[in-house]
Amino acid sequence: MTSENTHLVLVDGSGFIFRAFFAIRHMSNPEGVPVNAVYGFTNMLMQLMREHEGQPMAVIFDAGRRTFRNDIYPDYKAHRPEPPEDLRPQFDLIRQATDQFGIPAIELPGWEADDLLATYARLVVEQGGSCTIISSDKDLMQLIRPGVSLKDPMKQKPIGLAEVEAKFGVTPDKVVDVQALMGDSTDNVPGVPGIGPKGAAQLINEYGSLDAVLAAAPGMKPSKRRQNLIDHAEGARISRQLVLLADDVAVPVPVDELRPRGEPDAETLRSWLESMGFSSILQRMGFGGKARHPAQRRPDASPASASAEAQEAGDIPRSDAPFGPYETVTDRETLARWIEAAQAAGRVAVDTETTGLNARTAEIVGLSLAVAPGKACYVPFRHEGTLEAPVGEQLDVKETLEQLAPLMADDAVLKIFQNAKYDLTILRQAGLDVIAPLDDTMLLSYAQSAGAHGQGMDELSRLHLGHTPIPYDEVTGTGRNRIPFTQVPLDKATAYAAEDADVTLRLWEVLRVTLPRQKATALYEEMERPLITVLERMEEAGIRVDADELRRLSEDFASRMAEMEQGIYDRAGRPFNIGSPKQLGEILFDEMGISGGKRTKTGAWGTDSRVLEELAEQGHDLPTAILNWRRLAKLKSTYADALLKLMDPKTQRVHTTFQMTTTTTGRLSSNEPNLQNIPIRTEEGARIRQAFVAAPGHKLLSADYSQIELRLLAHVAQIEPLLDAFRHGQDIHARTASEVFGIPLEEMDPLTRRRAKAINFGIIYGISAFGLARQLQVPQGEAKRYIEAYFERYPGIRDYMEKMKEEAREKGYVLTPFGRRCYVPGITAKQAAQRSYAERQAINAPLQGGAADIIKKAMIRLSGRLAGTGLKARMLLQVHDELLFEVPEEEAGETAALVKEVMESVAELDVALSVETGLGQNWAEAH
């Protein structure tokens, strides 16, 4: 591969995967696994093989999310969302597709695909050849030069000097400097605040390079830009390290071995295409025949395949009605017709358009109704219009909701929502109090498919309807050009908003049919749907915070951080920017000479938390001090300062939002503020909890399930010693220590009990010997002996763990004791790390999910019991295994007894549930 005629084709596989996934509607193979991205990728390979016949080709993939850039800048790509659940199982299949066509699939841990592309491009040019990179990724434009070209696979057009200059305003050799100045919000590259693409290009063209710009900054005319260049010079230099592609990677396949391919094995390829169900590709490749029918799939494979089977069998009334056009309603007479149509249909899908995502602070802008597939309308209330597109008459919010009130309260008409809790809050704040009965398509899906895919409307629409709804960005614009929804012209607003109601109704038709087939009816009817109103009331109640205490806490944290900083400077021998990874690395490894450091590819030392924890374990003081400073800084910003900003000044309360569908196990999560991650056993965590207080004349009541996941483990795995210990009220950790280490209970010492406690809880999460060794600060061999002794004494636990892993591999999900399916993506992954993580999920999900089911049951039952007894307690928070109430002082004892009785009796296990209650003026006292 060294001749001048050699032309290497390099395919940016990772970049294409996401584009194929979102470009092609949902498809499943005969086993029910999503394959839309695989299909798009396979088509691309076929096309490229035709276009570049006889030329060597390789497909380059990302090996993982963490690379050397995270050592330079820990927040690099930190805010990128996880891949869609429907895409995850397709990564391995896409690598299979590459292998089936006889094309090398290349990846390397610690490096991005872009770095491998850069290295191969350099190598082939140095050997006298040339290459074409198949990608439209802007980050690869820096590689364009004689011998290296770029081609957009979607638009089928080359990307050359003209395209680069149009994109960045500079030639390819200056792209990195421009990117370093402007930053990149997608990858979390900081850049210099206030400098965009045009400003960055102007500076680089004027001064020639990033270094020249930064050197000239002090002499520039005083301005905000000048000051930002001075203040953020280090950030720009770090950004350059992040965006500069490494072209000296030790590639796993030498460039000389990338020779022209032979023909793929026809029968092997045919068999694989049939297994994917790609009939059209089989025919285009001349194989003839056709793949197995899509309905020939394992019946319990996934909720998506269950939906597809039902639709193919004609059991689901999947409508062919077009999505639109829809009607804009601007008078009461027309609205009356829609209300009559809803009453006649006996169901209506409802969706609101608002000014924001926080239901407590957002205002309603309009409302959509759908009474049948393709029959939907939009009722605008607060559209402002523009000079170019003025808005005519609109209905009054109050009058319209009064007109809708009888329909919303009509027991004979089902109201259907997607994320009902949000819309109910919006409508009730606007004056519509009674909305029943109702269904929620988001929860209908979640009850059947927790962990299998996301539960957003757009994703569900693609999955079940094969339809991609109009994106929000399409009607409002993006970035600086985004307009509020109130300014969207009514024709566009109607098309967008009414489609949401239409999609919601069609989803309901699909998901209601699959609910019993997935054996999820009881879960939805008895747990998920009733919880909507419980959580809505909790969010409305909020919890009171002591603003003065928060200010004192913030000042105390700031003071302690300042003291820490001085101590850090003393240990380091000089002041430095503690938040700068580069400066910290120079202090630790260059100036202090600490051994064990590793340089990143750019030459900077790695200083992320993992590195610092390892150094701290070796007894080094400075890394320990840095970790403590970072922990305190996070608590200050996340709680002490953030709670003050989130507090309603009128009520002195914060109102968290509970998320019902974001976890695989059924657990609730919360945001604004996130109250799930307050440290429980630290002094700072207790201080934060002290700031959550009861209203005057009230107390906070905490009710916490004791060791619920261990009790569930004893129940589901039928571990007799654990069952016996719980039945007799023994100290479970002391009993475990006695069983495992052969020490009589009366001779138990605290250290041995602590080790048994770590094993008890660690086993639930699939802890490794390495993890246990770090936690107990013992040699790894010793930790391994502890785990082996544990399994020898409790072989039933190992049997349970293997059973759960096998069940997940066979079905794709595991079940909680109450029948919730918890899907486990990655359980059959080829990559050991991904597979091991999925196996730990399979072990823990029935226990964590079972605990989530129990506390949800308790919340629903308590809501009714408290109301029925006339007690005035209000449920405020749910955090893991704990419920927090605000109760009148005179009712505190009676309420605590009732709460304990209900929570302990809500489920029947082979061991009794135990609840600990506490009362206090603040959360710390009560917990």
UniProtKB/TrEMBL annotation:
Q: Where is this region: Disordered?
A: 288-325
Q: State one Pfam family annotation.
A: 5_3_exonuc
Record's compositionally biased regions (Low complexity): 301-313
Which stretches make up the 3'-5' exonuclease domain?
326-516
State the reactions this protein catalyses: DNA(n) + a 2'-deoxyribonucleoside 5'-triphosphate = DNA(n+1) + diphosphate
Q: Which keywords fit this entry according to its UniProt record? A: DNA damage, DNA repair, DNA replication, DNA-binding, DNA-directed DNA polymerase, Exonuclease, Hydrolase, Nuclease, Nucleotidyltransferase, Transferase
This protein's record includes keyword Hydrolase: yes
Boundaries of every DNA-directed DNA polymerase family A palm domain copy: 685-891
Q: Which EC numbers characterise this protein's activity in its record?
A: 2.7.7.7
5'-3' exonuclease domain segment(s): 6-261
Q: Name one GO molecular function term.
A: DNA-directed DNA polymerase activity
- What family is this? Belongs to the DNA polymerase type-A family.
What role does this protein play? Answer: In addition to polymerase activity, this DNA polymerase exhibits 3'-5' and 5'-3' exonuclease activity.
- Tell me how this protein assembles: Single-chain monomer with multiple functions.
This chain belongs to which protein, by name? DNA polymerase I
Q: Which organism is it from?
A: Bombella dulcis
Top-down, what is the taxonomic lineage of the species of origin?
Bacteria, Pseudomonadati, Pseudomonadota, Alphaproteobacteria, Acetobacterales
